[in-house]
Each structure stands twice: as C-alpha cells, then as structure tokens.
Write a structure and sequence with these properties.
- Mediates the uptake of pyruvate into mitochondria.
- The protein has helices spanning 3-17, 20-26, 29-37, 39-47, 57-76, 82-108, 112-119.
- By secondary structure, it is mostly helical.
- It has a domain at 29-108.
- Helix 3 (29-37) packs parallel to helix 6 and helix 5 packs antiparallel against helix 6 (82-108).
- The longest helix has 27 residues, at 82-108.
- It starts with a helix and ends with a helix.
C-alpha cells in the first residue's frame, strides 16, 4: 500500500472511531459501569474449573436473579445500554453453569456420601 493510501486509511479509521462522540461516551458511567461490572462474569467463568464444593448455592441464585434484573434494566433505559446487557448475559450463563455444578454435586451426584466417608 502506498504511503498516501495508508495515511488516508489511518485518517479514516481515526475519524470513524476516535472522535468527540466516542471520547464523550468513554467518560460516562454508561460505559464504565458495565466495564467494571465485567469482573463478576470473569470471576464466575474462572471459577467453573474450581471444586464444586466451594460454590455457594444462595449466592449463585442471587447472582442469577441480579443479572436477570439488570439485563432488563439495560434495555429499559434510554439510550439502551448494550454493553451492560452483554455483561449480564455473560454473567447469567456463567452463573447458571455454576448452579448446575452446585446442584449436581450436592443433590444429583450418586456416591457423594461414599467419597466423604472414605476420606474421613
């Protein structure tokens, strides 16, 4: 690519993505709220590999309800906050995965009692 064409492509990219409106959006709670909230689904995804004995059933249930409420909220506000919606849909999936692991380990897994008895 020639240098003038490359310069034009770079300028086009900058004008499209790095402009006053984008910078204004980045400095709002509409952006930073969901970005900081992404820690919850990232932690849940990371915890999917940990021992299911460590999962708190009540907390997982609370996080499932919390994410469902905020998915609705993200689409009810004006303007719609798709970043918040995406954060909570990911969290909902991760928390449901944790809930399935919790239920399997504590209620549906045959032989769980024998594992605990043999280790004691």
């Amino acid at each position: 690519m020639s240098q003038p064409a490359q310069r034009a492509a770079t300028q086009s990219f900058i004008n499209k993505f790095i402009n006053k409106q984008t910078l204004k959006y980045v400095f709002t709670t509409h952006f930073w709220g969901p970005v900081s909230n992404f820690g919850i689904p990232l932690a849940a995804i990371y915890d999917l590999k940990k021992d299911p004995e460590l999962i708190s059933g009540p907390m997982t249930g609370a996080l499932i309800a919390y994410s469902a409420v905020f998915m609705r909220y993200a689409l009810a506000v004006t303007p719609k906050n798709y970043l918040l919606f995406g954060c909570h849909i990911i969290n909902e999936g991760a928390q449901i995965g944790q809930a399935v692991r919790f239920l399997n380990y504590h209620y549906l897994s045959p032989g769980r009692e024998t594992k605990k008895e043999s280790s004691a």
